[in-house]
Design brief:
- By secondary structure, the chain is α/β, with parallel strands linked by helices.
- About 40% of the residues lie in helices and about 15% in strands.
- It has 9 helices and 8 strands.
- The chain has an 8-stranded parallel beta barrel, surrounded by 4 helices.
- Helix 1 packs parallel to helix 2, helix 3 runs parallel beside helix 4 and helix 4 packs across helix 5.
């Protein structure tokens, strides 16, 4: 059975400005967990209270700060923040921190940028060692949402996972971004599903709830389960109307 995590920076936003209240609404809607982006913009005491009241786990948060991990000179800044993000994740019970590669740098060879990103992941693994927390590197699409982004290929991300070869480092696999890039999930993941730390989904076009666009999300979700993925599926979409109505459409679409 798929377990769904509500990204409270996208779901229940039409209903309330209060992130803690969005957690309560996620519980009322029958969701299994919550996640969010920047912890530094949240009142963590109220978040902790809402998590305790509802009993919902926190599936993941973003590793701050956003950094250009393709640029070696930005690594120390990111790693200092990763220590703080690790401690916040531990305090709130999150098992996954999510990070991005940063931009494709002009005037720097792609191989050099990939080497820098790989080193950033290796150094991150040292910081997370023994914490029980995994850093999930996320490929994004550069066709619609993130022009100029470096890591648009799931295969390249998995190659980096193989090169780092540390349990602390995994893949945040976003079906929306992957399929917008024209990838076939079963083909780009292949026999490397063990690297997946977290999954996101949304439909296309629009990045709205499943059923609102044209992506076949049922097939890859079932395939991921068959490959042994048993983590949360993060609902990172913009509801076209109320969140409850969007979730009803998603459930009908995904069965």
């Amino acid at each position: 059975m798929m377990r769904f995590s509500a990204c409270i920076d996208m779901l229940f936003v039409p209903e309330t400005d209060d992130p803690a209240q969005r957690i309560r609404l996620a519980k009322a809607a029958g969701l299994d967990a919550v996640e969010f982006w920047l912890w530094s913009s949240k009142d963590l005491d109220t978040i902790r209270t809402a998590l305790g009241e509802t009993g919902l786990p926190l599936a993941g948060i973003v590793a701050e700060p956003f950094a250009e991990l393709t640029r070696e000179s930005d690594h120390d800044r990111f790693l200092a923040g990763l220590e703080k993000s690790r401690d916040v994740a531990k305090a709130l019970g999150a098992k996954v921190l999510i990070c991005q590669s940063g931009p494709l740098l002009a005037g720097v060879g792609r191989e050099q940028q990939r080497a820098a990103l790989t080193r950033a992941m290796s150094r991150s693994a040292d910081i997370l060692q023994g914490s029980g927390i995994r850093l999930g590197l996320e490929p994004l699409n550069d066709r619609v949402d993130h022009p100029g982004y470096y890591l648009t290929s799931t295969r390249e991300a998995l190659d980096i996972m193989d090169a780092v070869d540390r349990p602390e480092i995994g893949l945040t696999y976003d079906l929306y971004h992957s399929m917008v890039m024209g990838e076939v999930p079963e083909e780009v993941i292949g026999d490397r599903a063990r690297h997946i730390a977290h999954v996101h989904l949304a439909d296309h076009p629009g990045r709205n709830q499943p059923g609102s666009g044209g992506l076949d999300l049922i097939r890859p979700l079932r395939w991921l389960q068959e490959q042994g993925y048993d983590g949360y599926v993060g609902l990172e979409f913009r509801p076209t109307g109320s969140t409850v109505d969007a979730l009803a459409q998603m459930r009908e679409t995904l069965g």
